[in-house]
Amino acid sequence: MTAREVPVPRYFRFALPPVSGLLRPRLIAVCLGLTAATFLVVCVSLSVGDFSIGLVDVVKAVAGTGDPGNVLIIRELRMPRVVTGLLVGVAFALSGALFQTMTRNPMASPDVIGLTEGSGTAVVAAIMLGWDGGLGLQTLGLLGGLASALLVYALAWRGGTTGYRIILVGIGVSWMCTSATDYLIARGGEFQAQAALGWLVGNLNGRGWDQAAPLALALAVLVPVALGLGRLMRTLQLGDDVAGGLGTPVQWVRLGLMVAGVGLIAFGTAAAGPIAFVALMAPQIAQRLAGTAWPPPITSAVTGGLVVAGSDLVARTLIPGTELPVGIVTGVLGAPVLLWLLIRANRAGSGG
Amino acid sequence: METHVRAGAGRPVLLLAALIAGLALLCLLSLAFGALNVPFGQVAGALIGHRESTAVDNVIWSVRVPRTALGLVAGAALGLSGALMQALTRNPLADPGLLGVTAGGGFGVVIAVGVLGLGTLYGYVWFAFAGALLASVVVYLLGRLGRSGLTPVKLALAGVAVSALLSSLTSAIVLTDSDALNRYRFWSAGSLGDQNGATVLAVLPFIGVGAVLAIACAPALNSLALGEDVAAALGRRPGLVRVQGVVAVTLLTGAAVATIGPIVFLGLVVPHVARVLAQWAGLGPDHRWLLPLSALIAPGLLLAADILGRMVDRPIEIQAGVLIAFLGGPFFIAMVRRRRLAEV
User: Fold this and answer.
1) Which of A63, B13, B100, B186 would staple B135 via disulfide (CB 3.0–4.6 Å)?
2) How is it placed in the membrane, per its record (chain B) (predicted)?
């Protein structure tokens, strides 16, 4: 249970302390490369659709000049969707990076331990029962995620928490949420059921500035908090005892990280639904690209944006005339990553 | 000393009698209560007379009897399946739902119904078996990989991973087909309603074969509980036992899932209750007792949840699967908190 992943020395790192300057060129290069790729995907995403717009016209429209029709399509229809996708990806991936580092287990992503399921139950209840208490789906998703996070943390608490207990308790809570969601879906009308299920898969269809703006605001607050806790989080990776010995207030840091991570996942879920596996796979991809022993937060966030924006582009263009929910694409892409992680973790003897 | 032994010998009989009596009582309640409450006298009359004349007789015979029978059969299947899985994996957290076997069966059903358009149980039950078999083998192999072997956490995570993959694919199918969606959403909450007598008869042979295979495993499972090397030294062939066990789990879970939907946690809770009761009766951790006890306790729990679901929010029914998840979830969490998660 307490076996931890021993950081394998990679390339030029083994002779140096972990925070050495030599590590950074690769991180920065990876970050820049990912950002460039994301920019490319965003541009392509803005240009394709029912009505194709050339890349030059896209740039003009974003700047607010050029054909008024193009400006309307780009700024009011395609931009909000693409921006929401980017922000959701950033939020999910950063949250995943926090949880994975905190529990020292790549499997401890928010979608495995019940947080997204909690959001899902709250939102589906609002859709199916037709009553949201005047709060709107976004706020409800947020409250649902927070409630299930609190529940998982409280139930896993027994003179402190451990990573594996959070995971297992989370699995229990998420099954309960799933079954409540199933009940609500079976209980309501067909159209509501379709809407609820469509939301549950994770969807960017029809997202507007109304969804993007609160998410952007939340990120402006939560991202600096998350990055600020990053340093303390690194000592947690050495194990609770060592971290405590180094002067890190273990339980407080863990609580702070949980709050930041839950906030990110909850706001992201509220905007676009629980898009499968992004929180799990983006930090792992980033970690491998950067060659670090832990998921690097900023690189993870950029990877998350790229994964969601890219998946949405695929989802929109895969079947002409049909806009698949983005969550199906990330689900199909992400599941093999998950299985591979499990195999890898097992081989390293740290899966449990 | 003498009296102690005699008390110990009497308790198993008492236990069995109590369990069977309890199950019979639940069957009676299940026949009597529902949208229309029928007095027990009339229930008995309808059962004995089998007059198809009155509306009440009709309700009893065409709705309540199949429903109750399905509860008995499917419940026994899930209970046996859970007990077998916990013994095979030597993992106290094993459950067909948690370990992705139900998700596999469900995915098979959705493919059959949504993609191939099969409507009859005989049409899609094979897909449920194939899905359940595939998922159980994949989860088991994933959980076994690596140095430390089959730990509870690894197995649970492998189950979550496989379930997540399958549910992604299931949503992809269901969302593009509103007919499949409608069938899927009722099925996925796990319910005993909406089934007729023919379904019960159709599923009975599969569960029967599965149950025989499962019970036949019991002596070997006792040896296996001592460890693989000891089992081999005792003349068992652990590999063969596993194959037999996986076939039994597949038949039991696949058939149950195809008829009543995914019911999670039932297979988890029941074997633990059976172990406690067996301990009380002085039987010890003997799988020749644990498996039959599980097969008696699980239908009771399922029927109780079904009856409760019919009563709580009339005329709307809360599916049995939902209620069981809300009973089983806290049980699972309590186990995670209390135990050091030692092997069974």
Assistant:
1) B100
2) Multi-pass membrane protein
